[in-house]
Each structure stands twice: as structure tokens, then as C-alpha cells.
């Protein structure tokens, strides 16, 4: 148990990024994530709003519960009560620690925007935080506390995103694009300021840290201005593409059907409850 939780440091050598151990572990989590999202999504697709939302509430409590437990244990393990400063929700994936509870427990347009945000970034964060997490799997053993909890929280976010899309809780309306940009922009600025104050690498804005961002880092030779701008630009591009693809699919699906306004009204009624 001491070895699993990393007390005194891990004795095992990390198996490494993209090792068969890493790929097997994260693939297992992703299979469970997709299976649960599809199973619960299909079961609740025709259910009332409260039943659909109950799954998100459980997911929100679970993701924050695991993360709080991790922060407390890491503070205890490092014997530094301020080590939580390096576990703030200022990574792209970590924003779900706030966005998912807001999506589950709030009401009105705030809930609508949060549901959109989770659906847009949940799956992307899940894949980047599992298959693309070179900074973790090069530093810790695969079956260690750090990687296990990280894998669980990232795939909970991915599960929530898939579930929201399957049961039809995401509205992805044009009027919410600005809110989505605003949420992301706020966290990017907060991450950059925290990086300067703590000499850290939130949102990977200062360094690629072994992640796929190495492509862009090397492209601009680590330029301290261009590199973070490219990273933020990729986030914004993802939002734009996600909205554009979704609108295209909806238009194709609803072509010739006079139900678009009715569906939109129904979505607004569900979200406003």
C-alpha cells in the first residue's frame, strides 16, 4: 500500500509513456468509459430531465471526490500544506472539476453553457489526459496512485461528455459560443498568471512537458510568446470546429423537417428546470 500511494517515493521504475502497460491501462479505462456512457445514455435517452441529470450529479460528485482525496493525500505525502497550489484546476482537463458540477447542479443559461462546455472538452481532455499524458507516465509507475486517480478523473469527464451528447442535453446554441470562449479564456489567463507566480506549467502554456504539444513547442523553438498563443489558439479552434460540425450534422438531420423550433424550445424547457 505504501508503494501504491507513493509514500517515500515510488520504488518501481516508470514503465514509460506509450509502453504496453500505459496503453493497456488507459485503454481499459476508455473502454469502461465508453461502455457506461452508451449503456446509461441509451437507457435514459427517453427519460425525463431529472433522471437524465441524476447521472451527471453522480459523475460530478465522483470526479471532485477523487480529486479532493488526491490533493489531501499529496499534501500529506509531501508534508507540505501548500502543495495544493500545484494541483489547482488550471489544466484544460481540470476545468471539468468545476464545469461538470455546474452542469449538474445549476439552472438556466449557466447550466446550458456548462453542459456545452463539458460536451466540447470532456472527451478531448479524457484522451489527452490518458493516451497523451507523457508527463505522468514518464514520471510515475502505471499502477500508482498518481496515474490511477488521474486516469479515473479524466475518463469521468469523458464519460460525462459522451453521456450528455447521447441523451441530448447539449444545446450547442450559437448564443452560448461567447460564454464558452469566456470560460476558457478566464482559465487560460488564470493558468498563465499562476505559472508566472509559481514557476509551474498549468495548461502546458510554458512547456510541452512530454505531451503532444512538443510539435508546436519545437515549431516555434520554445518562444515564450508564440508557444502559449498557439496552445490557446488550438483550444479556440477546437471549440469552433466542434460547434461547426454539430450545426452541420443537425442541419443535415433536420433538413425538410419542420421540428427545429419545437426541439429548441423543448431543450430550453429541460435546461431551465
Characterize the structure shown.
This protein has eleven helices and no strands. It has 273 residues and is mainly α. Helix content is 68%, strand content 0%. Helix 2 (20-44) runs parallel beside helix 7, helix 3 (49-78) runs antiparallel to helix 4 (96-105) and helix 5 packs across helix 7.
Produce a short descriptive summary.
Helices cover 68% and strands 0% of the residues.
Q: Keywords, please?
A:
single chain, 273 residues, mainly alpha, globular
How are the secondary structure elements laid out?
Elements: H1 2-5, H2 20-44, H3 49-78, H4 96-105, H5 108-128, H6 134-137, H7 145-167, H8 177-198, H9 214-219, H10 226-254, H11 260-272
Query: What integer value in Å does the Rg equal?
Result: 19 Å
- Ranges where pLDDT stays below 50 over 5 or more residues in a row are none
**Strands, total number:** 0
Strand content: under 5%
Please trace the helix and strand order, writing H or E for each element.
Answer: HHHHHHHHHHH
Shape: globular
**N- and C-termini, Cα separation:** 45 Å
Determine the number of helices (DSSP H or I, runs of at least 4 residues): 11
For the sheet with most strands, the description reads: none
User: Averaged pLDDT, please?
Assistant: 87
Class by SSE composition: mainly alpha
State the share of residues found in helices, binned by percent: 55-70%
Amino acid at each position: 500500500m505504501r508503494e501504491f500511494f507513493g509514500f517515500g517515493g515510488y520504488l518501481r521504475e516508470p514503465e514509460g509513456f506509450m509502453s504496453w502497460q500505459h496503453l493497456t491501462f488507459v485503454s481499459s479505462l476508455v473502454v469502461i468509459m465508453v461502455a457506461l456512457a452508451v449503456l446509461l445514455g441509451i437507457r435514459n435517452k427517453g427519460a425525463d430531465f431529472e433522471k437524465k441529470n441524476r447521472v451527471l450529479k453522480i459523475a460530478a460528485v465522483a470526479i471532485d471526490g477523487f480529486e479532493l482525496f488526491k490533493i489531501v493525500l499529496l499534501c500529506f505525502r509531501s508534508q507540505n500544506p501548500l502543495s495544493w497550489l500545484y494541483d489547482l484546476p488550471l489544466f484544460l482537463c481540470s476545468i471539468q472539476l468545476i464545469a461538470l458540477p455546474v452542469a449538474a447542479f445549476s439552472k438556466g443559461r449557466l447550466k446550458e453553457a456548462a453542459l456545452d462546455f463539458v460536451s466540447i472538452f470532456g472527451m478531448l481532455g479524457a484522451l489527452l489526459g490518458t493516451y497523451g499524458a507523457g508527463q505522468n507516465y514518464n514520471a510515475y509507475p502505471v499502477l500508482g496512485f498518481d496515474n490511477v486517480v488521474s486516469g479515473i478523473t479524466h475518463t469521468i469527464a469523458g464519460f460525462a461528455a459522451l453521456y450528455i451528447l447521447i441523451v441530448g442535453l447539449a444545446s450547442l446554441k450559437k448564443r452560448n459560443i461567447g460564454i464558452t470562449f469566456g470560460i476558457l479564456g478566464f482559465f487560460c489567463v488564470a493558468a498563465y498568471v499562476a505559472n508566472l507566480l509559481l514557476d509551474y506549467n498549468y495548461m502546458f502554456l510554458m512547456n510541452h512537458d512530454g505531451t503532444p504539444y512538443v510539435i508546436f513547442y519545437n515549431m516555434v523553438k520554445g518562444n515564450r510568446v508564440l508557444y502559449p498563443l498557439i496552445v490557446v489558439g488550438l483550444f479556440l479552434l477546437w471549440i469552433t470546429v466542434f460547434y461547426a460540425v454539430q450545426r452541420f450534422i443537425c442541419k443535415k438531420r433536420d433538413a425538410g423537417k419542420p421540428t427545429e423550433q419545437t426541439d429548441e424550445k423543448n431543450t430550453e424547457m429541460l435546461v431551465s428546470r
